[in-house]
Amino acid sequence: MLAKAVIKRDGRTVPFDSGKISKAMEKAFVAIEGYRLATSDLHQLTDAVAARLPERPSVEEIQDQVEAVLMEAGHHDVAKGYILYRQERTAARHRKERLHQLVSQIVRETGRENANVSQSPSAKLLQMAEAVGREFMERELTDPAVREAIEDGLLYPHDYAWGPIGTTTCVFIPLGKLLASGFNPGHGWVRSPRRIRTAAQLSMIILQSNQNDQHGGQAFGWYDRDLAPYVRLEYEWQVARIKADLEAVGIGADEIQAERIEKLAWERTRAETYQAMEGVVFNANTMHSRAGAQVPFVSINLGTDTSREGRLITESLLLAYEKGLGHGEQPIFPNLIFKVKQGVNFEPGDPNYDLLQLSLRVTAKRLFPNYVFQDASFNAGFPGDVPTMGCRTRVSWNIHKPDGEQTCEGRGNLSFTTLNLVGLALKARKELQVDGFSALAAKYEIELPEGTDLPQVRSYFCVLNQYADLAIQQLHQRFQYQCSFKKSDFPFLLNGVWMDSAKLEKESTLEEVWRHGTLSIGFIGLAETLVALIGKHHGESAVADALGVEIVRFLRVKADEAAKQYQLNYSLLATPAEGLTGKLVSKDRALWGEIPGVTDKEWYTNSFHVPVEYRCSAFHKIRVEGKYHAYCNAGHISYVELDEAPENNPEALMDLLRFMLDQDMGYVAFNFPVDRCRNCGQVGLIESSCPSCGSSDISRVRRITGYLAELSNFNEAKKAEALHRFSHVLVR
């Protein structure tokens, strides 16, 4: 039958043209054999193809017959080449179709991968760029085995869309150094400030400038210490100003008691410092300078500077944050983090104990500050403070510096990749790979708790080992790619912000500086993993808890092993999953079905956390989760959920802090609803409508993976998780 029309892939019908078949085969012969087939032979092959076609063949049917005719005519190499070319074209077409679908979806409505990304044009353009970036990274710059693990939902490299441009995640900015020496944000040198308001404003400009060179958060680790010199300069300026004013009206400064001048100067300094810190809070919530019209993800650590000036910075920033925005709204940024340290602020009589109490008062109203314990066992021996990012990321020991030069400043995370512990458990249950367990257990000293020496548990460690190695490999490949860039690609970050970057030559590759950062293996869903393996999670079973510790300990050993092998700062991260938490459970449910306690809800529990819906006391949750912090040296956090703001009971928060430190936690926070009526300003827990004015226009701020956002901005999975959070009873 002679074909009359062809059905295209998009459904259109066009007239049949045998010349196109001839041309395609001619190109195949030239490409594979290096010569043009005789016209008569080409026509003969074309006629053979046409004779096999129905009246209205599809493009795929025509290509099938071309392959068959070439094979039957003995042109095997040409047929194979044609098949490979066809497969490549099909893959390219699928990529194009997938990108088209992604972009079309973004145009209609911005997704909720990140709760602080709006639906503005800039936000949509960012998501389009990220769709292209992730596609390019996965298809062109990713090992096939890694790509398969990503597609199967077992491995998830974070911020992969930024991979092609080689950005790093985050950094603890050396603010004191930059303010003292001046800096160049790109259009000219900024000299060292002389007053506190200027210093505070410049600190925010530094954040903006550096945010453009990284895809993650920005942090100041010692904000009180670094701004203290400018409080001192402010005070000196105020003293000089008072004396000048007195002399202007004919009163000699020596006629006024010096302490009266100093007292007035300090009062004015306090007022200026408060205004400066209020500006920091407002700037942090209004500088839409991060990609996608976001504000920078700002974290500020403070609380350990005991100088008069440093204490004033801490006090003023806490008070400004407590006051809120213009109409009393909850500030979303900065993430305030109070560094708790024995002998400095933890006990009555400590010089900054009053500031810790003020901090708890602010937390009881505003959710922030969070608290990072400097006296946790895993910080022992470190020569300085160990701050943290608001989301939980931390750095500490650097294998490339001697003990006396250890610092967190100028360092941060390079990239992190999360293992789907749940998906791996479901895979292990199905495959039961147990043959290599004995050797693995001997090598890594795996000790299965009593009652857990089961085939699926043995299989799990074998599968986990395989994919941990794959994550380590992927992180190293990404590191090598990041190192291929030049100093000029990151003009602010690598001009004095990142450790040793000032030593770089213009055309240097970046291995000598990036090696100071961390490469982190993350994990999600320990609770659901334990249910999949032995039927209970670690919050409800001591046996499950012991197995959970063994799993996380094993991952930490793998990270330490990689650090020695590659001489890089590999570390283990309790992943802060936002968009990921719903993605993975959807994939696993589609593959394995709905499994009670595992895939039967819309989210996986973050990292090592006890499930948010599990009913237990705050102290039980702290006991269970505390033991995991020491293993997660790339970052960790634990929360206590309260049913409402504890504004009248900050003492309860102090009791919880003490118990958290007793359980060797590193970084902690308290969660409760922060609701506010946009119509009348009523605050407190508001169920459906405002009890004062009846309005249903309610702002509902909740915590999501360490930072704050409007509940309405959460993705569906995190929204479901937030609505199922159980408030913990405050009894031991």
TrEMBL record:
Source superkingdom: Bacteria
Start and end residues of each ATP-cone domain: 4-93
Keywords, ordered alphabetically: ATP-binding, Nucleotide-binding
One Pfam family cited in the UniProt record for this chain: ATP-cone
InterPro entries (alphabetical): ATP-cone_dom, NrdD
Cellular component GO terms, alphabetical: anaerobic ribonucleoside-triphosphate reductase complex
Coiled coil segments of this chain: none
GO biological process, one term: 2'-deoxyribonucleotide biosynthetic process
Listed GO MF terms: ATP binding; ribonucleoside-diphosphate reductase activity, thioredoxin disulfide as acceptor; ribonucleoside-triphosphate reductase (thioredoxin) activity
PANTHER family: ANAEROBIC RIBONUCLEOSIDE-TRIPHOSPHATE REDUCTASE
Name of the protein in its database record: Anaerobic ribonucleoside-triphosphate reductase
Organism in which the protein naturally occurs: Symbiobacterium thermophilum
